[in-house]
Amino acid sequence: MLIVFGNVAVLAENVTMVTEFLLLGFSSLGDIQLVLFVVFLFLYLAILSGNVTIVSVIRLDKSLHTPMYFFLGILSTSETCYTFVILPKILVNLFSVARTISFNCCAIQMFFFLGFAITNCLLLGVMGYDHYAAICHPLHYPILMSWQVCGILGALCGIGGFLASLTVVYLVFSLPFCSANKVNHYFCDISPVIRLACTNTDAHEFVIFICGVLVLVIPFLFICVSYICILRTILKIPSAEGRRKAFSTCASHLTVVIIHYGCASYIYLRPTANYVSNKDRLVTVTYTIVTPLLNPMVYSLRNKDVQVAIRKVLGKKGSLKLYD
Q: What secondary structure letter does DSSP report for 316?
């Protein structure tokens, strides 16, 4: 028999099971929460507008219908969804007294957050391969990165991301959660939630760690190998302008890779016992909010092709208004 009292359920055998969690988030910051609300709202709107602009321009300008921008468009879409899973709830909680989230909603939030996050990791790996194929094998590039291949790689990133996420979420939420329900974080992330389980979690954490290695370390090593080959090829380019253009193309991707993989590895590739709430929350803010903001700014808006395409699209809209 199950009897529900507030945010816990009590079984007939006197075992208390959690039915909802309390997200502590930034509750300890007091009056600063209002400032955080304004900052996060501004960043959220900037992320949405930046990524939506990139996706729209790539879709509307035929000159950007290439594998590189195809993957960039998927990445921008994934980044938008990624922040949509987290930021609206943060904004609500900053003004809410009861910062609760139901057990099922917590699992759903973690599933979509990890799904899009892992998809982003895999996409960055594929984009590294795209750069490798374009620079090291330019003659074979149309075959290596045909639209069929691009479609398959994009689909595999999404499927792989959400399958890995489903595995991790099952491992976390199949554990028993008793009276402890205070999540020392601003969303349902792995370490803060699994620490509340009222049983030994070592076996589950080990499997989660293996998943982390598969989706973080292996793609990162793949990117490193790709860039070693790219560097060797770039150094053989005779013209300084050619080398500069090749380095410029890769620099934006490397910036996003280092920030994204660096922060994610720091959080997920270590034992849960080493979780330090304040420091880790700051690192988490970097890859949940700052990285999606960097994507349109560093990766795209600094790109001359994208800048020209944006001006072209805006010019077309201006011309249409004149004829109306």
A: H
Q: Following DSSP, what letter does each residue of 234-295 receive, concatenated?
A: HHT-S-HHHHHHHHHHHHHHHHHHHHHHHHHHHHHSS-GGG--HHHHHHHHHIIIIIHHHHI
Higher pLDDT: 320 or 282? It is 282
From 93, 289, 80, select the one nearest 186 (Cα to Cα): 93
| Beta-carbon count within 10 A of 83 CB | 23
Maximal C-alpha separation, the chain: 78
**Residue 96: phi, psi to the nearest 5?**
-105, 145
pLDDT digits (tens, 9 = 90+) for 167-208: 999 999 999 988 888 888 888 889 889 988 888 888 999 999
DSSP code for 96: -
Q: Who contacts 73 (Cβ-Cβ below 8 Å, separation ≥6)?
A: 54, 55, 58, 59
Residue type (1 letter), 58: I
Report whether 24 contacts 281 (CB < 8 A): no
- H helix count then E strand count, the chain: 12, 6
Q: Is the dihedral of CA 289, 291, 295, 301 positive or negative?
A: positive
